[in-house]
Amino acid sequence: QVQLVESGGGLVQPGGSLRLSCAASGTGSIFRLYVMAWYRQAPGNQRALVARITSGGFTNYAESVKGRFTISRDNARNTVYLQMNSLKPEDTAVYYCNAAKILPTDMEYWGEGTLDTVSS
Fold this sequence. Notes:
Order of helices and strands: EEEEEEEEEEE
Number of helices: 0
Helix content: under 10%
Distance between the termini: 40 Å
Radius of gyration: 14 Å
Strand content: over 45%
Largest sheet: 7 strands, mixed
Structural class: mainly beta
Shape: elongated
C-alpha cells in the first residue's frame, strides 16, 4: 500500500515562507516513475492543482503561484517538496500531496493534507 505523509504546514505572516514535504512509502524501487504533485483546497472551494513534477524533472505551476512556489523531488529519499515564498492570505488552504502513474498500471494516491494559514 502506497502512503503519502505531508508535513511543514503552519501559521505564517503575509510575505513569509513555508517549505512543505511529502514522504512516500510502499513505492518500492519505482518512486522515480511517479508524477508527483501538490494540490490545495480552501474552505468552500474545489481542490486545485498547485504544482506538478514528472520523473524527468519537468514542472508546471498554477498561474497564481508562478514565480513564488517551487516543486522539487529527491528520489533517493522518496520525497517531494514545495517551497512557498512571498505568501499571500489567498494561499491559505489545506495542501495535499498526490502521486500518479500510468504504467505498468494506472494508479493514483493522496496524502491526508497539511494546513497552511497565511495571516497577520
